[in-house]
Specification:
This protein is α+β, with helices and mostly antiparallel strands and 287 residues long. The chain has nine helices and nine strands. Strands 1, 2, 3, 4, 5, 6, 7, 8 and 9 form a nine-stranded antiparallel beta sheet that branches. A hairpin with a 5-residue loop joins strand 2 and strand 3. It is elongated. The termini are far apart.
């Protein structure tokens, strides 16, 4: 038989879980996750870890890969093994919701939390919810398919954030393990959101959100593309050297105003998100 992909997990972690000499605590969402020669670094130490263990993660080619998953105070980390470097992460504050796979349809836990009644058996936090779901699924499917279905859950991220709205599809070893993971993620996510709200005022939260948007791949690639277009227009302008006041000269002047406006907005967003010292100490900004 093959190796059990779920061996050694999941489990709630005590304060002693660590990679000796390699852990990196997180003081805030903007803390660095990198170590000098390890790209992503390693799983944070002790108190930073709420739950850890092995799950299977579905990749883009529809295959399942065994991953060591660690739910921490501010992020969910993914590694190939418990002692391996981190290869991916999800900021808890950017998880929009978690949903349970249901034969192509999803039971949205965010909606269920809003609609549930205290003690109701359709409450996803109720101990018998998963048992009831398996029984309902098995009415139209065989029991093995029903149990397999309830082992899979989806972690949805916010568009424009660190993970660009990506949905992570994860599979636990059993319905009970699936429920434990979902509870751990939801609990950690709510604690992180409360921490952010308590630490930052309205202006600081706006700056943080602006920073997340500004540093996203979409915005950075867009700014880079606009810089390239500006350079291209400047080269063409100097090659053609249109007569002052001509139609072509007026067209290049319009392009200049458009690019200047875009760069002014980009600079204002950059200053607002990184004010003061992070902005003035960045060599690219000074340039």
């Amino acid at each position: 038989g093959g190796r059990d992909p779920f061996s050694s997990g999941p489990r709630r972690m005590p304060k002693s879980h660590s990679k000796q000499g390699k852990g990196s605590g997180l003081s805030s969402l903007t803390s660095s996750l990198y170590e000098a020669d390890g790209d992503w670094g390693y799983i944070p130490d002790g108190e930073e870890v709420a739950m850890a263990g092995f799950l299977e993660k579905e990749s883009v080619d529809m295959t399942w890969s065994r991953r060591y998953v660690c739910v921490c105070k501010t992020r969910i980390f993914f590694a190939k093994e418990a002692e391996s470097p981190v290869i991916d992460s999800i900021p808890l504050s950017e998880i929009s919701h978690v949903s349970l796979n249901d034969e192509g349809n999803e039971l949205d836990f965010r909606e269920r939390k809003e609609e549930r009644e205290e003690g109701a058996t359709n409450d996803w936090k109720h101990p018998h919810f998963f048992e009831k779901f398996v029984k309902m699924s098995s009415s139209s499917l065989n029991l093995n398919n029903a149990i397999e279905n309830v082992r899979i859950f989806h972690v949805h991220t916010t568009p424009g954030g660190f993970n660009s709205g990506r949905t992570y599809i994860l599979r636990a070893s059993s319905p009970d393990a699936c429920r434990s993971w979902i509870l751990a993620i939801e609990e950690a996510r709510m604690k992180e959101l409360k921490r952010i709200n308590s630490m930052y005022g309205t202006l600081a939260r706006m700056r943080f959100q602006c920073k997340e948007i500004y540093e996203s791949d979409t915005v950075q690639f867009s700014v880079g593309f606009i810089i390239f277009l500006n350079f291209l227009c400047s080269v063409i302008n100097y090659e053609l050297l249109p007569q002052p006041g001509s139609h072509l000269d007026n067209l290049f002047n319009i392009f200049e105003i458009v690019f200047l406006s875009i760069f002014s907005v980009e600079l204002a967003l950059n200053m607002f998100a990184h004010w003061f010292f992070p902005f003035v100490t960045d060599g690219w900004n000074i340039f």
